[in-house]
Amino acid sequence: MGTVCVKLPEVLEMKLRRIAERRKTTKATILRAALSEYPEDSLGEIGPSCHDLAKHLSGCLSGGPRDLSWNKKHLQGYGK
């Protein structure tokens, strides 16, 4: 098991101490439990992109120009 040193503001340290005393356990046990219950999606993990979610729609139109991004004719007046 690894060791981590954490500096906490006094208010959080007091809160942690009170919780540990009430539960008759150690502060380390409380911190381990809190980290194990921390939701994975709040760790900033990147979910599927917009393209991933709408991949089935990509290229589903027919009859239009193939790529509007390079044809200057289609970009006339864009942003005005």
What labels would you give this structure?
mainly alpha; 4 helices; 0% strand; 80 residues
> What structural category arises from helix and sheet content?
mainly alpha
Report the total helices. Answer: 4
CA(first)-CA(last) distance: 61 Å
Kindly state the percentage of residues in helix: 40-55%
Gyration radius (Cα, Å) is: 27 Å
Reported for the largest beta sheet, the result is: none
Would you list the SSEs in sequence order as H and E?
Answer: HHHH
Structure summary, number of beta strands: 0
Average pLDDT number:
83
- Shape assignment: elongated
Strand proportion = under 5%
Uncertain stretches of 5 or more adjacent residues: none
Summarize the structure.
By secondary structure, this protein is mostly helical. Helices cover about 40% and strands about 0% of the residues. The chain is built from four helices and no strands.
Description:
This protein is mainly alpha-helical and 80 residues long. It has a domain at 8-39. The protein is built from four helices and no strands. Helix 1 crosses helix 2 (27-36). The protein is elongated. The mean pLDDT is 83.
Fold topology:
Layout: H1 10-23, H2 27-36, H3 50-53, H4 72-75
Helix pairs in contact: 1-2
